[in-house]
Amino acid sequence: MTQKVPVQVPKLTMATTEVTFLEWLVEDGQPVEEEQPIYVVATDKVENEVAAPASGILRHGTAEPEEVYPVGTEIAAIEVP
User: Fold this and answer.
1) Using one digit for the tens of pLDDT, what is the confidence trace for 31-75?
2) Total-model pTM
3) Which end of the chain lies in a sparser environment, N or C, as judged by fewer CB atoms within 10 Å?
4) 29: Cβ–Cβ under 8 A, 6 or more apart, which residues?
5) Strand partners of residue 25
6) Which residues pair with 3 in a beta bridge?
């Protein structure tokens, strides 16, 4: 049975309430390792690579480049065997 681990928009700083999704670093359906950077987001000041919360197969959600998402929004999932 496959377990799904949600990939959520992180709270990068104490003041962060939303971020701009920039791009995926890993294609949909590709294997990822825990802590591997999988996507890039931007705040008003910096861009950050965000690491995978688990090892498994990355399944992209509905995140679109240049769209703003609140912290905690689920934008993808990782299927863990």
Assistant:
1) 999 999 999 999 988 999 999 999 999 999 989 999 999 999 999
2) 0.91
3) N
4) 57, 58, 59
5) none
6) 80
